[in-house]
């Protein structure tokens, strides 16, 4: 998190890296996000099924830190459709290589961190905390239950717990950034 804070590239790239850490979406879902999918007043990102890997709509609770980042980005790109447009055309999303290239510029090798790696890091740390139900953790990155019988019956979003979990996660990242936790 401290390395991302020190990134000297495009402001939108820095914001996207921070949001990957805070929200741990699939990088492509974030890069192609439309402003119309966000309700910053309610702290909600609704990803349409067409943008999701599993072709199911997905709601993402936005902690206050994510809302603040998005409001800053809105000053830069809010006049267009895409939250993270390409530097070459506002009609295309940020390149799929941009975020990984930024991590390389920050000194991380592909074996140390990738844009998709924020998902694994968040899942691991949330599970290790012992504070959250595993199903709530799995719903946040939009994972689908592999067991078809369980998937048929366990349809809950664990929304209220996910809202609390994401606020806790964002605060935890702030503490890690400040060097207050290990």
List the helices and strands and how they pair.
Layout: H1 2-5, H2 11-23, H3 27-31, E1 38-39, E2 44-47, E3 58-61, H4 64-77, H5 98-105, H6 117-129, H7 134-139, H8 148-153, H9 159-178
Antiparallel strand pairs: 1-2, 2-3
Primary descriptors:
single chain; 182 residues; mainly alpha; hpI Integrase, Chain A; 3-stranded antiparallel beta sheet; 3 strands
**Order of helical and strand elements:** HHHEEEHHHHHH
How many separate domains make up the residues?
1
Number of helical segments with 4 or more residues: 9
> Major β-sheet, in short?
3 strands, antiparallel
The CATH homologous superfamily corresponds to Intergrase catalytic core
Report helical residue fraction. Answer: 40-55%
How is this structure best described in words?
The chain has 182 residues and is mainly α. It has one domain: hpI Integrase, Chain A. The chain contains nine helices and three strands. Strands 1-2-3 form a three-stranded antiparallel beta sheet. A hairpin with a 4-residue loop joins strand 1 and strand 2. Helix 2 packs antiparallel against helix 4. This is Phage integrase family protein. One of its GO terms (molecular function) is DNA binding. It comes from Chelatococcus asaccharovorans.
